[in-house]
Amino acid sequence: MKVTEIEHFSHRHKLELSYSQKPYRCDGCKQEGFGSCYQCNKKTKCDFHLHEKCAMADPLATHPFFNNCIFEFRKKRKHGKRCKACGKDIRGFMYKSKKAYLHPCCLKLPNTLNGEGGLILNLKDKASSKCLICRHKKISGKVKGWAYVSTCGKHCYHVGCVNHMNFENWGCFNSQQNGGNISLVFIKQESGRKKKRGCCVGCALDLIVNAILGSALQLAAGCVLGLS
Ligand SMILES: [Zn+2]
Ligand SMILES: [Zn+2]
Ligand SMILES: [Zn+2]
Ligand SMILES: [Zn+2]
């Protein structure tokens, strides 16, 4: 059972586990978020949000890509440091180690995502082929960037590119309630080029964007959540 109300060092009021149907900026890591999050009680109108993973960050963590390496949670930004996973700047909460800096949400990305029709996406520490969004193997000159690669070999997307695409071009994704789950779904564009990519691209992107934003929310019966 999840804790639905917490006290957090970063904010003076109690935070409540709720669901934001609009994109928000996490006041911890300063990255975008959507859906499930810890929010300041609405009455105070603080507009304060934390990703679940930022609110519940463990002081120490490890990651399978870094052997014998301990990551320490830090509250403060680090000038000029980039997240090894998504390639974006570190502007708030982060995990620091000798080998890399990571956003809390990036550190916790699932190793495997399972989609419909046997689609399996595995998290890799670099793209195995060109990313289908930016058309490059590296996310930028210095940063390779992690990628989700499908077992069939047809899909390869940088974690950072999916996230970027989502918010630069808001409207590509929409929230959808499906049974007991709320998640983001990719809206297929009618323009010729995007259509040709095929429907499976949409399925793959849905999986990744929900993993990145931590948005998928299980609405368990009896669980009190503020759905507004
Ligand atoms: Zn965050
Ligand atoms: Zn508040
Ligand atoms: Zn990151
Ligand atoms: Zn890319």
TrEMBL record:
Protein name stated in the entry: Uncharacterized protein LOC111297603
Keyword Repeat: yes
Stored Pfam families: C1_2 (PF03107)
Entry keyword set: Repeat
Domain of life: Eukaryota
InterPro entries tied to this protein: C1-like_sf, DC1
Organism from which the protein derives: Durio zibethinus
Boundaries of every DC1 domain copy: 9-55
